[in-house]
Amino acid sequence: xxxxxxxQRPPVTLPNFCNLGVSLRILIAVNGMSLVAAIxxxxxxxxxxxxxxxxxxxxxxxxxxxxxxxxxxxxxxxRLPYSGGILLVVLLEELLTTLVYFLGRDLLGVEGVFQLYxxxxxxxxxxSVLLGYFNLRSRALSPALSEARLQALQARIRPHFLFNSINxxxxxxxxxxxxxxxxxxxxADLFRVLMADNRNLVSLEQEVALSRQYLGLExxxxxxxxxxxxxxxxxxxxALIPPLVLQPLLENAVYHGIxxxxxxxxxxxxxxxxxxxxxxxxxxxxxxxxxNHHSGNKMALGNIRERLALHFDAEASLTTQISxxxxxxxxxxxxxx
Length: 337
Hints:
single chain, alpha+beta, Heat Shock Protein 90, five-stranded mixed beta sheet, two-stranded antiparallel ribbon
């Protein structure tokens, strides 16, 4: 029965018009189709550029006003059924086309009802193509498929620290049973999250708490070799983030930056918000040893990049930088509550 439910087709929704990736796709598609229309209509290059400029005088105001109004009305569109949202978007585009036509027809140098009809048809075709594209994209990246990919990606998180942590706890059972009990509770919390259905975003506060528990387990075996500095005074505690983003980065930092050396090493975590974005910056010692360490690091970062893209599209980024024996990972995500 569960498998039948899981295979049901998920409901299709309109795209989030406030999303940067959606806006960029619309801008590129509309201007691309305008260019194609100008090329098909013109008989030579000079005429083509004139056609394109004349078309841009109508298309660009409609396009920019559309993006502004659709983003402003995103919450309304989310409450409407899919068919109602489609109808509202089409009517809005035709209304804006009519408004821009009557306000700028002297500038456009066009007259007559036929020209207005032509612009209506052009607007309808572009709107239909874009809505059809986002419909297909929504089905291709449906929640069921995205969830399966997320689960598969999260399953790649290295389990080596589990065995190390168990050995560390075993060494504490006789000498410090209370600390061993606390460590086992932290392990239980950590693996409860690892085994959970991690489809939804979690608060940044939860992710930090889980990461602290993980580092506590690592410190059982690494002791003074592992030093962690947290700069989270400006952290937005209510910001939403995909689960298991910070913890794998810390695991990478321990595995690649702390473990290879017998000397103490410091991991620095800085989390803050700026301009409606959340920044997570993590620094750890860097030792250029290549081999499996490098490939393992690339796999983990690729894992996180793909999960960020699935959740936030083009609004999220992950960059890395190496300087002065320090490895830095910088994640930027939109500030969602």
